Every structure is written in C-alpha cells, then in structure tokens.
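Extended Data, panel c. Modelled sequence:
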Amino acid sequence: MKKTFFFNILILSILLSTTVSSFAGVSPAKIKINFEPNKEFKKTLTVFGYDNPTLNTTCNDIVKVENITKVDEGHKITIKIKFKDKFGQPGKNYCGLTFTEKDIKLAQSTFGTKALVSSRLDISVPYPGYYAKLTLTAPNINKDQTQLFHIKVENLGENVLPNIKVDVKIYDIKNNFVDIVSTDTVTIPKFEFRETDLAWQSKGKESGKYKAVATLYYGGDEPATDEKNFIIGKIYVEFLKATVNMTPHKINPFNIDVASWWGNDLKNVYAEVKIKNSSGVDAGEFKTLSVDLAPWQTKTLTGYWDATNWGEGKYNAQIRIKYEDNETVVNDWEVNLVQPKINKKKPFYLSPIFILIVVIFLILLVDLI
C-alpha cells in the first residue's frame, strides 16, 4: 500500500514538473536586424512563466536590458542593441538570448525547475563593396505555355547595386543554346531585395528537358549565377528505374519508378511486364497496380512476379507503361534472381563478451587460490 502511494506521488511530481516548465516561453523566437556601425536599436520581447525574469546573452558587449514591465501575459522586456564600428563576420551572425528566473528560490519549485526559454537575434552584416545573391525558380510547363521565371536579387553588400539586370539563357538537354530573356533595369539599396517574374514564350519549342541559367553582372569580383532544370511537358510518363535483384523460387514484389511529364492529372497509370530467361524462354508476366499521377509527380508502380519455378540467373524484362492511350516501352531491363546473403552469427562462446567473462572469471579464480 505504501509503495503504491509513493509511486503515485512520484508520477504526480513528474507531471507537475512538466506542467511548470511548459508555462515558460518567449515571443518572438527570432528577431532580424541589420548591422549599422555605431547605431543603436531597441527591440521588445514578451516573456511569460516567470515571476522575475533575467536575461543571459552571448553578446554581452552589444545587448543590454533597458526596461522590464509587468503585463497580463507576462513581462515586456525592452533590450537595447548598440553596435560598435565592427561586428562579427559578413553574412548571418547569431546572438543567443536566454531568459530564466532571476531568483534561484523562485526558479525552483516543489516539483522541479522551470525550463530556460530562448530567443535569438539574427544579425545581417554586409559584405565589403558589392555583393549580390541571385535566386532563380523555373517551374515545369506544358507545351506552348508561357514560362514565368521567378527571379530574386538580394543586396548583401555595403554598397547600393545600381542599374542592374538579370539575363536568363535557355538551353536544351544537349546544352544547345535556345533563347535569352532579360529583366528590366533596377537599383537595389543596401539590405534590400527585388523580385520579379520574367516571361519566356515557349511556343514552337519541342517537349523535353531544358536548363535555364540566370546571370547577374553587378560589379562584384564574379557575376552572381543560378540555374534550374525544367520540363516543357507533354502527355508522357518517364521510366526512371525498376527492381533489379529478387529472390529465386518465391513471389517477389517488382517496383517501377515513373515520372509524369504532363501539367495535368494522368489517371489509371499502370505497367505490363513480361520476363524471359537468358535463353529467351518466357518466365512470367504480370500487371502492376494502377495509380493516378498529379502534374509532374513521381510515383512507384508495384506488381508481383511469381518466380517459384525459376532459379538463380539473369533475366530480361520488357516493361510497358500504359497511360491515356499511350505507352512508354522499356526493353531488356536486366533482372537477377540471387539468393540473399545470410549473415551467420558466431557462436556465443566466440563472442568478445563471452571471452571477457571467461578472462574475468579466471582472474577471480586465481585471486581466490
């Protein structure tokens, strides 16, 4: 009875401890700020779950608490960030802000200790001179549709980026140049960015895989570049890969990975598979389960090959992927029937643990003698 009572008390204590910790929090969890030499900024956070919160920071040289005000949801804490002429390294720098109870006695309760809660300053420090980041997005499109390249340019340097534009060159799958389009000219102040959609007319271009290469010349040591692959689509399902190794004398799952090249749904996609041995003798045929493919989606078709009468060796599979009165045919996909390797476990008496036990036993035996 006593054991049950104390066990229940222990469980209750753990639950209460968890509850106490879960009440502590801070908002926002992250504050973004741009570095400006010898400038001062003020930011406000809300901390809840503490009677008398205090701040610990990894940036004591620039961050100070200016004011703490009690409010209904907790405490409003105003911090002052005072930069010197330099700070950190160019790019993203992080400053941790951790809040806890100032009074240790208040921090500890009968059922545990309140959790620490943390926020963070994300401080962007500009690169010397001119520095830009270019991001290109190139979605797949159907044949003869207009392609909208999405372009984002971020000014990460200490200078204004004046009168810049982005060129986008399009290449086909053989890396032959196809076309070029360019954005309008813009100026981007420090710490700012610009985004735009750049139209390219694909009318008359063949369906297939293409590559878009965006280039920005802005005065830096090297131009900013980004590239993306995209598809000019058609009603086509691409064969990606299929199962290679299976086990002889059993029924094996046979998986076929496929990808849609169409910007609309494709219904009832399945595959018919015929398998022959190395002598050309039929070794079985089957259909996979059917699936629906969303635009540009990749999925796996699964069927089952009954190889109960077939032993180890090499086999050839013909795969016909069926969709919308069309088919993709793959001939001579090599399949192997091989026995899986069995890892034989060493007897326990040969294991390191058993040998160690024996050695310890012998040492103890010698000591006793």
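The helical segments are 2-22, 104-107, 352-368. This feature is highlighted in the accompanying rendering.
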